[in-house]
Structure formats: structure tokens, C-alpha cells
Design goal:
The chain is α+β, with helices and mostly antiparallel strands. The protein has helices at 189-192, 204-214, 240-249, 263-267, 283-299, 323-337, 349-353, 376-384, and strands at residues 7-14, 35-42, 50-55, 63-65, 67-72, 85-86, 95-97, 102-104, 117-124, 133-134, 141-145, 161-163, 166-167, 169-177, 182-187, 220-225, 254-260, 303-307, 345-347, 354-355, 358-362. Helix 6 (323-337) links the parallel strand 18 (303-307) and strand 19. The mean pLDDT is 96.
């Protein structure tokens, strides 16, 4: 039997968030007032108890939560009768998260397993101001006017709105056996899942978790991918070196890290939708940044697995793929594959999904259609490229 002496709080779900105040208009930002949100969390791992991490990290005003409930999700916005449980923060059901802050709910003594789908319902009685959010969760959320905390299913008669973005959720932790191997997938859209089918859990980390479970592993992977995120420059999101502390080093129970960065550093400088904050970096720039990441992760005792920069030559985004950027990607990938890189291991993403006749482009079978992101089959190829032994404790 697992007890507090043999178990510890361990991340079982993560959702990296960004600021609604960024200069780029790539993603929709919004606020809420006198509305109920119901959003879905699919657990990557299980345990004997559960707590939720709520966030107002980039909010500029206090976030008043008039009530929060957690239930097992049936389908759509529906919840399983009898599973709905009120959440509290420091014993209080009605609470406020300060601007820039986060809140951890009091633990719920409820056994949960990997793959459980939970519906987190928030009653937001006051104007939230622009909301801290995850831009590409690939999981439909729901909003209705008024207080619908305990409503079994939210529907059109209540003014239902479906949401493509996730708001105010940073993660979920479970009480799991000490020594559980937990890998943080820390990277860009190739981890967050852009290009894969929404509401199907076909992102790379999801499919890697399937492989781990099929192999009998008791560990799992949590997803801290941010679409359009960069290694060296802010937006979208804080750059990797800046968000490392919050999104990896502060993740409870983390033992391993998978990295995928570089694509957006090389492609975004040519994009009109983004602020012109930096030129295309050199290979030396990216290698220095990746080495710094590896050094900080190793100093924290984390096993660090790199992935090669994915191919993107035929992307439909004008100005993203340049001869200069593609040459840098090849040089960085050669370094990752070589003996001089500081990583404990690497997965060759580029080789896994490249067109053999033109390795700078994604193979047609794996292309989501935009030449930059992989589809479901491509995400499976990425998951298959990871040596599972590198994720063991």
C-alpha cells in the first residue's frame, strides 16, 4: 500500500502557458466574466491522490475563482454522475489567485490512473482580464454564461461556446511511488502537438506514453511543449532558457527531460506575424544555448535527451525556410549526433520523419499539410525514434 512515506507528489499532467500580452497576434487571447469554464485534463500517470495547479501567471489583475469542481469526464462536456468533487485552496472553496501567482488545490484522496479524463470546472464570477492560457492544447474546452459548476452536461441551450484554447490550468500532480521515472517533454510545437488531430491524444508525448505502458514501464511523460517557442528569444512564450526553471526544474518528480528546440529560432525571423526581435542565430548560438540547458539540467540531476531539429524545407509559411536556416539546422543536428554534445542520449527526429530523397523536408506520409509540423503518423514515428531505455530511472 502506498503511503506518504513511500510516495511523493509527482507531476501527472502539465500544460505550459503563455501571456495574453505578447506582441504577436498568432493566437486568440480572451477574458471571461460571469462564466463557467469546463476543461479536460487527461492524466499521463496515476496515483492514490490528486491535486490541481491553477495559474494566473501572466494575469495583471487578481483572478477570483468562485468555485472549482473536478469530475470524471464521460464525453464532450459531460461528467460522470457521483464523481463531481468540490476543490479547495487552503480549505476555501471561493478563492483568489493574485496577479502573477499560482494556486495548488488541497489534495483529493481519489485513486487515478494513466489515461483518466478529468473535467475541471471553474466558476468565474468577475472579469478575469486577459487570461493566462495554453494556445494549442488540442483538447476542446467549454464555456457557458452563469454558474454551471455542477451541471452534468453543458449544451447549446445554455449558450455553450467551444474553446480551442485552455485557460488558468498549469497541471495536475498525483501521489505516486517514490522513484517513478517522469520525463518532461520540453520544447516547441513538435511536442505540444500542432498538426496532429485534436481530441485524439496523438501528440508525440501521448504516443510515447503508449509505448512506455506497452513495455510495462511505470513511468510516464508530461508535456511542456509550446507552439512557436524559441530557445534564445521570447515569443511565443518566454524563451526556453527563461522558462526552464518554472516549466522543468519546478516540476515535482521530474527525473528526465526531452528537448526539441531550434526550429522557431531559425524560421521566425522571416515571419511578419512576429515581432522582429532577433536575426537567424548561428549554429554556435544554438549550440551554446543547448549546452547551457544541458548544464543546468544536469546540475539539477536530470537525465537529458536531445532531439534533432526536424525538417521544414517545404513549409507553406513564407519566409520561414531559408537556405541559411536550413544549413544551421544541419550543423546543429550533426553536433547533437556527435560525441562532443553534452546530452546523455538523443532521438533522431530529423531522420525519423525526413524524406530520404530530400532530408531537409518532411516525408509526405508524415506531413500535416503545412510542411512544418507532423501529422498523427509522423508523431508516431517520432515516438518510435526514442530508445525507451533512456527514460528509465
Amino acid at each position: 500500500m502506498i503511503t506518504e512515506t513511500t510516495a511523493s507528489w509527482t507531476a501527472a499532467f502539465r500544460s505550459a502557458v503563455i501571456s495574453p500580452h505578447e506582441k504577436s497576434d498568432l493566437f486568440e487571447r480572451r477574458s471571461f466574466s460571469a462564466q463557467t469554464l469546463r476543461q479536460i485534463i487527461r492524466l499521463d500517470g496515476g496515483g492514490t491522490a490528486l491535486r490541481i495547479r491553477l495559474t494566473n501567471r501572466y494575469g495583471r489583475t487578481p483572478l477570483h475563482i468562485g468555485g472549482a469542481h473536478l469530475a470524471l469526464r464521460t464525453r464532450g462536456s459531460g461528467i460522470e454522475p457521483g464523481s463531481d468533487t468540490p476543490l479547495h485552496v487552503d480549505g476555501t472553496a471561493d478563492f483568489t489567485i493574485p496577479a502573477g501567482g499560482e494556486a495548488l488545490t488541497d489534495p483529493i484522496e481519489r485513486p487515478v490512473t494513466a489515461g483518466d479524463e478529468l473535467a475541471l470546472t471553474l466558476w468565474l464570477p468577475d472579469d478575469t482580464g486577459p487570461a493566462t492560457y495554453s494556445a494549442v492544447p488540442l483538447r476542446t474546452g467549454y464555456a457557458v454564461p452563469g454558474n454551471a459548476l455542477t451541471t452534468p452536461t453543458l449544451d447549446g441551450t445554455q449558450g455553450l461556446e467551444e474553446l480551442a484554447t485552455r485557460h488558468f490550468i498549469a497541471g495536475a500532480d498525483v501521489l505516486a511511488p517514490r522513484g517513478t521515472a517522469v520525463t518532461v517533454a520540453f520544447g516547441d510545437s513538435w511536442f505540444e502537438g500542432t498538426g496532429t488531430t485534436p481530441d485524439t491524444d496523438n501528440r508525440f508525448p501521448d504516443l510515447l506514453n503508449q509505448r512506455l505502458r506497452a513495455a510495462g514501464s511505470t513511468g510516464w511523460v508530461v508535456n511542456q511543449g509550446l507552439s512557436a517557442n524559441r530557445l534564445l528569444t521570447d515569443e511565443i512564450g518566454e524563451h526556453a532558457l527563461a522558462r526552464l526553471e518554472h516549466d522543468v526544474l519546478d516540476v515535482p518528480g521530474a527525473t528526465h527531460v526531452l528537448l526539441h528546440f531550434g526550429l522557431n529560432d531559425l524560421g521566425i525571423p522571416g515571419q511578419e506575424a512576429y515581432p522582429a526581435t532577433a536575426p537567424i542565430p548561428t549554429a554556435a548560438d544554438l549550440i551554446t544555448g543547448l549546452t547551457t540547458l544541458a548544464d543546468r539540467l544536469h546540475a539539477a540531476g536530470l537525465t537529458t535527451i536531445a532531439t534533432t531539429v526536424g525538417p521544414y524545407k517545404d513549409t507553406v509559411f513564407e519566409g520561414y525556410a531559408t537556405p541559411e536556416g536550413l544549413a544551421v539546422a544541419r550543423e546543429v543536428n550533426d553536433w547533437i549526433r556527435g560525441t562532443e554534445s553534452p546530452f546523455d542520449a538523443y532521438a533522431d527526429f530529423a531522420a525519423a520523419v525526413a524524406d530520404p530523397a530530400d532530408p531537409d523536408r518532411i516525408h509526405d506520409d508524415y506531413d500535416s499539410g503545412d510542411g512544418l509540423h507532423v501529422n498523427d503518423a509522423g508523431a508516431q514515428a517520432l515516438a518510435d525514434s526514442v530508445d525507451l531505455t533512456t527514460l528509465k530511472s
